[in-house]
């Protein structure tokens, strides 16, 4: 349970793990899909971009627009209070100290451009880190009519000030998934295979929030200043959407169905209007990436995108104003705390 004042710092793991979340059904349509794509920068520099127009328009007679895989990162919001906070009995914490540290996404089939779906939610992890508790919430989304599973999101949340509920010599830890499911982030020392620069708009957070994340930290200047920022900051999941777009455009010829899973660790805040420079390294079916704010030369996000497969004939990364290619690469057509500092995992400073 989130509180707005100093919490009792009490965590009852048995109560938290026993909680049964209600299933949540909802619909989305092509307007939602297109609005999200625009919110994470699609066609932002070129309204007729060959590799991105299909995310917002039925080009060349295509019956449906295509869906960016990170669109599904919106789905867990349907189980929250609209501010990204899910109520879990047995957890008492100060909501102002909540940090979104990591996001892991698995895609099981191409995401339809409109659907009726159902969210099933569970606590997938709970860890006592002394000064904080790490909570992992897993949301599995299925087609309502057929029951076919579309995707899974696992959100890693840091509850600062709510740790220390177990014996420090044997701190409590619980997880429902295998330790090797999410790969370790490893940023190579070599020159990246490609670099993609993308300048966000001053209105980027205001546009992205229309997709369902209404945390005022990203829109209200007074609240942003109280939180220690000079002005409202960009949503962490919006930054993740920019990074995934960079991978898809640079290695996948704009084909979203090439993506199998996505992992991102939020490191630092982004101000709307800043330039995101995503460095990418192709390693087999995996693209390691690191996104920096170009103006401050600070890393804001790191992680990887796992692709469905790499064909024998590799496509060359897109070259031009925004992409600088160092190697030829391509993909097929057809998820410890690191110093996060704001409500969506982007560190202040």
From TrEMBL:
Q: What is the lineage of its organism?
A: Eukaryota, Viridiplantae, Streptophyta, Embryophyta, Tracheophyta
Organism of origin is Urochloa decumbens
Occurrences of domain MaoC-like (ranges): 188-298
Q: Where is the composition biased (Basic and acidic residues)?
A: 338-349
Give the protein's recorded name.
Answer: MaoC-like domain-containing protein
Coiled-coil segments = none
- Where does the Peroxisomal multifunctional enzyme type 2-like N-terminal domain lie? 26-161
The family database entries (Pfam families) matched by this protein are listed as: MaoC_dehydratas (PF01575), MFE-2_hydrat-2_N (PF22622)
Query: Which intervals of the chain are annotated as region Disordered?
Result: 330-349
């Amino acid at each position: 349970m989130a509180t707005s004042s100093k919490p009792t710092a009490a965590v009852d793991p048995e109560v938290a793990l026993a909680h049964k979340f209600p299933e949540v059904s909802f619909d989305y349509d092509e307007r939602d899909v297109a609005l999200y794509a625009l919110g994470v920068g699609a066609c932002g520099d070129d309204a007729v971009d060959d590799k991105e127009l299909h995310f917002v328009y039925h080009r060349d007679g295509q019956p449906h627009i295509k869906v960016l895989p990170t669109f599904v990162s919106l789905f867990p919001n349907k189980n929250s209070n609209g501010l990204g906070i899910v109520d879990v009995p047995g957890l008492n914490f100060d909501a102002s100290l909540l940090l979104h540290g990591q996001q892991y996404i698995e895609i099981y089939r191409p995401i339809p451009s409109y659907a009726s779906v159902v969210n099933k939610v569970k606590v997938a992890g709970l860890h006592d880190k002394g000064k904080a508790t790490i909570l992992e919430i897993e949301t599995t989304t299925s087609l309502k009519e057929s029951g076919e599973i579309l995707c899974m999101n696992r959100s890693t949340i840091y509850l600062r000030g709510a740790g220390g509920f177990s014996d420090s010599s044997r701190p409590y830890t619980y997880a429902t998934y295998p330790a090797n499911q999410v790969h370790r982030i490893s940023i190579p020392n070599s020159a990246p295979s490609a670099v993609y620069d993308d300048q966000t708009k001053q209105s980027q957070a205001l546009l992205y929030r229309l997709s369902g994340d209404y945390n005022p930290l990203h829109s209200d200047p007074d609240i942003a200043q109280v939180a220690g920022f000079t002005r409202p900051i960009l949503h962490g999941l919006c930054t993740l959407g920019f990074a995934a777009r960079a991978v898809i455009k640079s290695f996948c010829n704009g084909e979203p169905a090439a993506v199998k899973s996505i992992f991102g660790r939020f490191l630092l805040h982004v101000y709307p209007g800043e330039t995101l420079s995503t460095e990418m390294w192709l390693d087999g079916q995996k693209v390691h990436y690191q996104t920096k704010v170009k103006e401050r030369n600070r890393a804001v996000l790191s992680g990887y995108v796992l692709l469905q497969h790499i064909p024998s004939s590799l496509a060359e990364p897109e070259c031009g104003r925004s992409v600088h290619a160092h190697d030829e690469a391509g993909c097929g057509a057809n998820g410890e705390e690191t110093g996060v500092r704001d409500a969506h995992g982007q560190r202040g400073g």
